[in-house]
Every structure is written in C-alpha cells, then in structure tokens.
Amino acid sequence: MFPAAPTPRRVLPPAAGPPAPDTAVPAADAPGAGHRAAGQAVTEAARPAAGAGREAAGSGRDAFFDNAKYLAIVLVAMGHSWEPLTGLSRTAGALYMTVYAFHMPAFIIISGYFSRGFDLRPDRLRRLITGVVVPYLVFETAYTLFARWAYDDPDLPVSLLDPWYLTWFLAALFVWRLTTPLWRIVRRPVPLALAVAVLASVSPEVGDDLDMQRLLQFLPFFVLGLNLRPEHFALVRRRAARIAAVPVLAAALVLAYWAVPRMTSAWFYHRESAQELGAPWWTGAVMTLATFGCSLVLTGCFLAWVPARRTWFTVLGAGTLYGYLLHGFLTKGARSRGWFDGHTWLHTPLGEIAVSLTAAVAVTALCTPPVRRALRCVVEPRMTWAFRKEPVRQD
C-alpha cells in the first residue's frame, strides 16, 4: 500500500517519468526533471496540478502524489485492522469492502504512472534491484521468521517464490516494471492487460509462485497508470469531480452494506480464480471487469479529495513503503496474540473507532523520517559496492 528507490520527482515528461513506487513503492528513475504542459492545451482543470507542482518545488516532489500515497497507506492499514471486526459488524464489513475496492488499485495506478520512464538501462535496473528486489528478499525472510514465532510454527519454510502477506506487492512490482517496455509499444495496452486478467481469473491452474494470480489480475491497473498523463489526474481534481465524489462514495457504502451478507470481499483481493472461490468459471470474467470498473470509479473519488497543496502529512508520502512493509508486523502480531478475541469491547462502535485510529497513528509513525533513516539500509539501500561503475561516456 503500497516505493523504495529514490522517491518520485515533482514533474514528469508527458511520455516518460520516474517509475514509481508506492504504496509505496520505489520510485524508479526519472529521465528528466521538467514537465511541460502539452502545448497550449492547458485547461482550467490542469492549472491546479501545475500549482501543486510549484508548491513542492523546494523538495523536488509533487505534493499531490505524496498526499495520495500517505492517505492510501492509512486506508491500507485501517483496512487490515478492520478485517478481524467484519465477522460481527456489518458496518465494519461494508467499510472494509469499500476500502478494499480501491486502496491497492490506487497505489498500483500511481506506481504505473511513475514507471512510465522505466527501461532496461543499467542505472534503472540497479534501482529496480535496490528499491524492489532487496526489500522483497529482506521482508519476505523477516515475515517468515516472524510467522514462525507468532503462530508457533518453527517448520514454516522461507520461500522466496511464495510471498507471505504484504510482500506480494514487491514481487508483482518487479515483474510489472520489467514488462513496462512491452506495454509501451503494444497497441491498446489496457484492453490487452484486462484480457490477461480475465484469463487468469478463469484459470485455477495458474500457480502460486510469486502470487501469480494477484500479479496478473492487478496488472490492468499498473498498465493503466503507464498510460495516464498529468491532464488525466487534473480531471479528477476539478471542483465538479470533488462534488460528484461525495454521493458516489455514499452510494458505494450503501451498496457494500447490502452486499456484505450476499457476496465475499475476496473478489477484490484478486488472489484466486472464480473456480477457487466456488463460482462458475464465467463469473471470473464478469467480476474481473465489474471490479475493475468499480475500482476505477472509487479511485477517482479518492483522488478527487486528495489535497494538491502541501500539508502536515505531505512529507510522510516519501515513507509509505516503510509504513506498508512494517505495519504488517503489528497487524499480524495483534491477531496472533488474540487481542481481538480477548477484548470484546473492540467489536463495539467505540472499539471499532479506536482500532481505526490506532491503525492510522501507527502507520503514520512508521512513515516518519526517523524510521526511514533507521531502516534505509534495507528498504532503500544504495549498494554501490554491488555494481560495476559505469564508464564515462564521451561525446
């Protein structure tokens, strides 16, 4: 929910920009620094984006995207904290389903947007390794050792091909980024990626290595991000979009409240085929397209209300990968210790509010600069010792 290499820069060239990371996730390399508006086609809707960029000029980052990443990671952490509450609370279940419909798609779209400039150039491959592969290896091992302790399972193997809990995102991001050059040259990349997702959703034979179902079913969001431009984000930041987002989100919550006892939220996890969810094979195609559309609408509503100006939490947007990777230890630790089962008051409305606030505060703390400084060696390592020096090019 969720960047590890150098963080994304403020402005991006129309065709290629720094690959991102998100959810945190590592921002890949940006080829250029200056973003030019496309000719004189800068509309009133696009001007707020330019203003936001100027506000962030001092830090070289776009405040809008940092704000979006921080708010998204807060929703990721809150969603994970609501999961133990959904069995006894229909309201918690509705909030959980609504948030799960768009929090990871939002992260993945932003990751794709910042990956537009990724190619197989040596410096970008180095950043892919240090910003994605190394954190994956470190945290996949750490989570497995943690699970051995938390669930008293000393025989649980360390498997780098079977992501545990949150690390699937890094594995998927690695593959998505490697395939970026392909998506940049094919015609109609988004429909093609949707076709891949649909085929995966009706194919229970897809293996579990690298959580392949999630990798393939979430692929359309990444490819969509690759094809977005600044003016597309400007569209959802207009006043009309903000106003429209309110009734749409309200309707989504009402629909989710109705759906809680009637359907499983597992459709939004995108980690299993339709057959594995006990549904007819053709349901996979229908639900893949339906959830894609639903996720896009809710992501647009979310982005419509993301502040474009610098706020107190803008600086935390640079540390969302830390919050994403670290909050899982708290979430899984609380569940393994039976906190939700042993404290029935947590299942009351006040308890649910307390759980939500605790999750938000905890993940916020994990995104702060002191945590980043302490753990940069494993989340954003430089590793200059591991790579050959590039020869100086002479023109």
UniProtKB/TrEMBL annotation:
Q: Any stretches that span the bilayer, and where are they?
A: 94-116, 128-151, 163-183, 240-260, 280-305, 312-330, 350-368
| GO molecular function (one) | acyltransferase activity, transferring groups other than amino-acyl groups
Low complexity composition bias: residue spans: 22-45
Known Pfam families for this protein? Acyl_transf_3 (PF01757)
Q: Does the keyword Transmembrane helix apply?
A: yes
Disordered: where is this region? 1-45
Protein name as annotated: Membrane protein
